[in-house]
TrEMBL record:
Annotated Gene3D superfamilies: 3.30.70.120
Pfam families, alphabetized: CdAMP_rec
Keyword entries, A-Z: Receptor
Origin species: Candidatus Avichristensenella intestinipullorum
UniProt KW Transferase keyword: no
Protein name as catalogued: Cyclic-di-AMP receptor
Keyword Hydrolase among record annotations: no
């Protein structure tokens, strides 16, 4: 058995949870916050049997695509100290960060 921890952008989370559940996977959804853009994201926990593992990864890969987004980044104003003006930059967001762990024991009460 494997534990899949998938961190996805909020924009993809609902569609991903629906798709996983339609495929017969049980999913636990946790609201989390990312560090770089301070944007909301969602962490999903899935316990899957070894023979269904690749199928779960395929669903995650199909739904969670990377895309470009405009974000504001602070920039110091020339000649002043401690004054920052935001300017837009293009960053890649989306996709999924997936961690996989082997599970020695699973108990459900």
């Amino acid at each position: 058995m494997k534990l899949i921890i998938a961190i996805v952008q909020d924009e993809d989370a609902s569609r991903l949870v629906s798709s996983l559940m339609n495929e017969g996977y049980s999913v636990t959804k946790l609201a989390t916050t990312g560090g770089f853009l301070r944007a909301g994201n969602t962490t999903l926990l899935l316990g899957v049997e070894d023979d269904r593992f690749q199928g779960a990864l395929n669903v995650i890969e199909r739904i969670c695509k990377s895309r470009k987004q405009i974000a504001t980044s602070p920039s110091p104003v020339a000649g002043t100290s401690g004054v920052y003006v935001p300017y837009p930059i293009e960053v890649m967001v989306g996709g999924a960060t997936v961690f996989v762990m082997n599970v020695e024991q699973f108990v459900k009460f």
